[in-house]
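hiii, so i know i said id send this last week but things got crazy w the move. better late than never?? heres the sequnce for the chain we talked about at the cafe, plus the structure i predicted for it. fair warning i was half asleep when i ran it
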Amino acid sequence: MSVPLKRHYFTAAEYYRMADAGILTADDRVELIEGEIIEMSPIGKRHASCVDRINRLLGRLASHAAIVRVQNPVRLSDFSEPQPDVSLLRPRDDFYAAGHPRPDDVLLIVEVADTSADYDRGVKVSLYARSGIPEVWIVDLTEDRIEIYANPSGGEYRDVRSASRGGSVSSNAVAGLTFAAEEILG
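okay and structure toks below
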């Protein structure tokens, strides 16, 4: 007789208890996605420099109008707490010390992908759309292109477009946020 296997999905509270107990350490590159603990890819040189460029670009534009966070958690639900490469958040006096940002706090998420493009595009973009994140950019370093996903509705993004070298990237969610693709791709 075959018995179906049951999966245990972790909540964010359990995820943090594992960290407190030393099961997960600060050196573990993991994130909680739909109740599963997912190991993230190592950060390569090109990936790191792209994140730094985006941080600088957004930091210049954001000043007091937003908070730029790099590789820090966003609590989408009790079962999902990804760590996007860059998040542009609504300003808060406590800089989110009282708790990680929630979907209503997020203006833009940027995921930089050199080995994880399929996962980011297939799993994370869908998760962000279902959570109501207004806009997501996937910087695909392998294809040398930036994909823009905007206007979530029904768990999908209605507006999907891309920009390559020679083109530009503009945000639907943040007025005045426009860059030449080369400024991001390097």
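btw Residues 6 and 36 are 13 Å apart (CA to CA). thought thatd interest u
miss u guys!!
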